[in-house]
Amino acid sequence: MDLDIDYEAPQPPHQQIAAWLRQRIQAGEWAPSRRIASENDLVQATGTARTTVQRAIRVLREEGWVYTVAGRGTYVSEHPPGQ
What we know:
By secondary structure, the protein is mainly alpha-helical. It has a single domain, classed as Winged helix-like DNA-binding domain superfamily/Winged helix DNA-binding domain (Arc Repressor Mutant, subunit A), CATH 1.10.10. It has helices at 13-26, 39-46, 50-63, and strands at residues 66-69, 73-76.
């Protein structure tokens, strides 16, 4: 579950992480209402700072792909966009 961030790409790291997570949701790796990887796991998988991962999750939350339950984690939305 590793993602190599391309720091030379025009897309910032948090957008690359959001795209990677979005693709995994679309591929059915995480079903609706299922918890996605923890922030700590995503930090390790991407080699980025926690704030970068948090920004990526915020992007997906604003787009309607995921929702966060305080103290419990981030989950795939029941009806993610385009599904």
